[in-house]
Amino acid sequence: MSSLATAPLPSSPPTTGLLLTGGGARAAYQVGVLEAIAALRREAGASAGPPPFPIITGTSAGAINAAALACGADDFDGAVQRIAEVWHGFHAEQVYRADSLAMLDAAARWRLVLGVGQLIAKWLRIHPRSLLDNAPLAELLARMVPLERLPALMRAGHLQALAVTASSYSSGEHVTFFESAVPMKPWVRSQRLAVNDRITQDHLLASSAIPFVFQATALPMQGHTEYFGDGSMRQSAPIAAAIHLGADRILAVGAGRMNEPTATLAPNALTGYPSIAQIAGHALSSIFLDSLAVDVERLRRVNHTLALIPPEALLESGLRPLELLVISPSERIDVIAARHVDALPGAVRRLFGGLGGNGAANVKGAAFASYLLFESSFTQELMALGRADTLRQRDEVRRFFGWGDVSPDA
Fold it and tell me: How many other CB atoms sit within 10 Å of the CB of residue 178?
């Protein structure tokens, strides 16, 4: 039986977990969802109550949002507002170096390795680590995510646990690093494990290091050092961490439509040999978008199976169905990105090729661009979509949190 439904039966009000998935700049959508939840919470008169998410988990850019939210667990509305301010005014230069000299250096090093040959590259001691330099992101995290607040927040009961995931290039394991208010035994599953550790900015850099695009981050791992990249790689069960940490119900916020339509984006837009940007976009979408849909399907199948078991037998088994609410984009984000590709720094568009220019080229590179489009025109549109999608599900959200009907004068 899947571990997704093996937690003990709750004897107190359900503990709510939040899962924020990966997706680079697509994570702006999550911020709009959080803004809408904060608004619905105020509408219901629940702002004076406990924090809505005592358990917070995240991956990749979702790990950054998750950690920032956790660091403000004593003031949910204020934390959401601070995160929204960052995403509302985003520029690529806050995440990676996008000046022409940086792009020229990255392109030259990779072309030398690929074009001249490994022998000459080795002789010249040139070892390119990534296509883009994300040093600015480290500076942003230091301001945006005050992780030093976590222990006090946990002691005060505002937060039960925070978890972020990363993928080890050294061992091939998918690792969930977690910090908890109470001692918890780490879990181990096939090719994935948990490590009880103090979460740092380096964990966030590792979790959000898109493969090839950003460099790996070194992290201490049980007495030695391993190098980690984006946590969405090889993530087979994104919902599981919140369950292991004690969540009875989980809100999962995706970065792509759960059921993508098969129609093309525009007539003849995707014909011809794919560009490098188009191939890269397809690969990244496979990494970032597929695992949540598979895990949701598995969880719902387990819940359906448990519903067939007689109540007495289910009680004796210790198994239980898990309540899950999924909020994901109602529109294709690559279509939205196609409208904003030209907002990318020109040096980035030239480096990757297939980005910018005419409409068809925009569409072909849009999926890849959507992960790097840390530009306010794009992030603001995604935030607006997140708010609209959440408010469209307001009744489901209220039922999920147990928020009653709004009074006429609320």
Answer: 23
